[in-house]
Structures are given as C-alpha cells and as structure tokens.
Design a protein that fits this description.
Pfam families: OCD_Mu_crystall. The strands form 3 sheets. The chain has an 8-stranded parallel β-sheet with strand order 9-8-7-10-11-14-12-13. The chain is about 35% helix and about 25% strand. It is built from 10 helices and 16 strands.
C-alpha cells in the first residue's frame, strides 16, 4: 500500500472513463453474479439549512468502497455545485484504502452510465432517435453524451426551467453535430426517447402524450414523495428498475401511483440485471411505452470506481488489479 493513496480531483476523475466504458463495467459485475437486491441501502441524514448527507457503502469481489455525498439545494445560488462528495475505494480482503475519487464527478459519470446500459436493451435500434431532454445541469450534459455513445440521436429538444440554460445546452448539442432546439413538455409526443434529469418533485409532462414504443428514463429523484413522471405514464408503461427493493423503497415515480391505487408492487416488469442476463426481453407488450426508473445504488458507484482505478493503472494491495 502506498504511503499516500492516489487522489483524483473532479477533472481527473471525469477523464478516466467514457459513459460507454462505465456501462460496460456495470454490465460486467452483473454478469459476474452481483445481486443488486442484496445491496445495502443508502443512509440519509438531514443537514440544518436544507441539505442532505448520504452514505453509500458496497462490497463485491476484491473491492469495497463508500461514497459520502452531499446534496445542497442552495449551492447553485452561491455558484457552488449542488452535489458534493468523495469516494473511497478499498481493497476488499484487507480494507486498505486504494484511491480517493471526486464523488460528484463519479456520480456525474455513473448515473448516465446506468441509463446507457438500460438503453442498450430498451431503446429502439437501427435508426436515429428523436430525443427530448428535460434538465440543463451536469446530469443532462452527461446523459446527452451517454446517449450519443449507445444510440444515434436524430435531433434533441431541450426542456428546462431556465430558458438561458436550455439555450446553452441546445447550442452545445448543435456544436456536437446534432440538430437541437429548446421546446416544451408537449414535445414528448414526438419523441422516441425521453430523458428526465431534473430536481423536479412533480411530473414534468403529460404521460398520455408519450407514443407507444417510446422509451422514458427518469433519474432525478431517490425520494419516495418526489417524481418526474406521472401516474398516467407509469400505469401504461412496461417498467424496469435497478432493483425491486430499492425502487419500492425510494422511487416516488412508482410509489406515488401505488399509493393512489393506480398500480401494485407487481407492476415492475424487470430489472437491469434481468435485461443484462437475458432472463427477460424488453417490450412489455405491444404498443407500450417503456420506463426505466433509476434511483442510484452503491454497487454502481463501486463498479465504476473499480473500473476507473484500473484505467488509472491501479493495483490492489496484493498485486496487479484484475477485471
């Protein structure tokens, strides 16, 4: 073990992996037998002033790790990031520290990577896709890049509360060679793919407008009383999640419709692990939208952190790292 463990700031953390490579790492641990249903749940502590402190530990294979993350809603007004934190990667058998990564940068990569992995199975293939993107923050930018690595966008419509920020993201998208404009929630009616990357606590659009065969990804909330999609969409969609236990504990997109009596806990069609392992096929029936609801889980952080550590040339306390 080195006297001082390597530390990766936000820029170095973000540069270690592409979203597609991070998605490969997630698929790899699922194929190796990791069971997300057994993953420890996150701990949350309310912080005076409206913030939230999250603790997310995980262990699998030769590694363990823990993310300490802060969610500070008031930070953007101060010119600071809303998400803060650090990720400590450990050698599993000895629990010796191996590396310290920027936690916000890891999250900004991990969440789009999870979505990218789901889209490999759920999004239509073989043709460019019309994309509606809700949100203008780091996750919106990360998801745009992740989608470009797994599917070809025909065009992007950006919907955001801040018109200037929406225009900026549309301009960024056009600079990448993808047609883009700002729009309104009604634009979901013409979308093949809808990405929800916001801090919204109420539905962003009318779920009745989503076309049969379209795919919706919602990643913005892990709170049981907050949601980005409405009951109408959830009721008519084939629903996929990272873990049934986590979704039924934290996913307001599903828990609110269940509390309304619109769906039951058996409404979930399958999990990410089911898709990767081929235990189920995507679709959920003819003429049915597909919804992937992500809450973010500690095993995902660990899988991506290990892949970043390998990409940086790291070794375990016992010798060279192995995939």
């Amino acid at each position: 073990m080195p006297a001082v463990i390597p530390q990766f700031d936000a820029e170095r953390t973000a540069a270690l992996l592409t979203p597609a490579a991070a998605a490969d790492a997630l698929a790899g641990v699922l194929r190796a037998g990791l069971d997300p249903e057994s993953c420890p749940q996150r701990s949350s502590v309310a912080v005076p002033g409206g913030g939230e402190l999250l603790l997310m530990p995980a262990a699998a294979g030769a590694y363990a790790g823990v993310k300490i993350a802060g969610v500070a809603p008031g930070n953007p007004a101060l010119g600071l990031p809303r998400i803060t934190g650090s990720y400590l990667l450990l050698d599993g058998p000895t629990l010796r520290p191996l590396a310290l990564f920027d936690g916000a940068a890891l999250t900004a990569l991990r969440t789009p990577a999870v979505s990218a992995l789901a889209l490999r199975y759920l999004a239509p293939a073989g043709r460019p896709l019309r994309l509606v993107l809700f949100g203008t923050g780091p996750q919106a930018y990360g998801h745009l890049e992740a989608v470009r690595q797994v599917r070809e966008p025909a065009g992007v419509v950006v919907v955001g509360r801040n018109p200037a920020a929406a225009r900026k993201l549309a301009e960024h998208t056009r600079a990448l060679g993808v047609p883009a404009r700002t729009g309104t929630p009604a634009d979901v009616a013409g979308a093949d793919l809808v990405l929800c990357c916001t801090t919204a606590r109420e539905p962003l659009f009318d779920g009745r407008l989503v076309a049969p065969g379209a795919t919706v990804v919602a990643v913005g909330s892990h709170e049981p009383d907050a949601r980005e999609t409405d009951t109408a969409l959830v009721r008519r969609a084939a629903v996929y999640v990272e873990s049934r236990a986590a979704a039924l504990r934290e996913a307001g997109d599903l828990l609110v419709p269940e509390a309304e009596g619109a769906i039951g806990p058996g409404h979930i069609n399958g999990t990410l692990a089911d898709l990767v392992a081929g235990r189920i096929s995507a679709g959920g029936g003819q003429g049915c939208p597909q919804l992937f609801k992500s809450v973010g889980m500690a095993w995902e952080d660990l899988a991506v952190a290990v892949a970043m550590y390998h990409a940086a040339g790291g070794t375990t306390a016992r010798g060279p790292s192995a995939t």
